[in-house]
């Protein structure tokens, strides 16, 4: 089951869902709009190595916006901190943003129950596109879970700003 807009408002009000800052006008019939934060990360090496930490460059998006370029992966973040210990959150790009040729969060839309923080967004434009801090970039839906819950406590917990991949971290922890 998916939560409806009125139920998202009720759950945000009683603490079953955490959204900070919460604005009722960002509630849709069955999702909550999230906005683009003011920081982007890009990887600086020509080759990204899954088994190693990769250097990144931080980009601040000013009021004049920032032009995203094709063939570049940008890691953005939601302005809102979103999470729940009760519901499974899923984040997708907004259709109006997709119609501008921007892929948002296409490979990892499922959030874990128990994650609380700003969501890192994978942004890939089809053609040059100017984006702005605070623009509505995605929407989060909340689904009812079934069964025992094991709350997330992983490497991205309490994220503040975009986070580069820590895929390498899991490999190092196994050694």
From TrEMBL:
InterPro entries listed in its UniProt record: dCTP_deaminase (IPR011962), dUTPase-like_sf (IPR036157), dUTPase_trimeric (IPR033704)
Source organism superkingdom: Bacteria
Sorted UniProt keywords: Hydrolase, Nucleotide metabolism
Transmembrane domains' residue ranges: none
Protein name in UniProt: dCTP deaminase
Species the sequence originates in: Nonomuraea longicatena
Lineage: Bacteria, Bacillati, Actinomycetota, Actinomycetes, Streptosporangiales
């Amino acid at each position: 089951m998916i939560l409806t807009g009125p139920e998202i408002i009720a759950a945000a009000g009683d603490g079953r869902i955490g959204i900070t800052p919460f604005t009722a006008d960002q509630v849709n019939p069955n999702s909550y709009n999230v906005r683009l934060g003011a920081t982007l990360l890009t990887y600086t090496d020509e080759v990204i190595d899954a088994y190693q930490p990769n250097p990144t460059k931080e980009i601040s998006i000013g009021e004049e916006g920032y032009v995203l370029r094709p063939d570049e992966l940008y890691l953005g973040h939601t302005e809102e901190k979103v999470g729940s210990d009760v519901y499974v959150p899923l984040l997708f790009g907004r259709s109006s943003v997709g119609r501008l040729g921007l892929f948002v969060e296409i490979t990892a839309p499922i959030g874990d129950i128990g994650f609380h923080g700003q969501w890192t967004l994978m942004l890939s434009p089809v053609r040059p596109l100017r984006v702005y801090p605070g623009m509505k970039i995605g929407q989060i839906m909340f689904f009812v879970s079934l069964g025992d819950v094991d709350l997330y406590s992983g490497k991205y917990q309490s994220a503040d700003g975009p986070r580069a991949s820590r895929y390498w971290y899991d490999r190092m922890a196994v050694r």
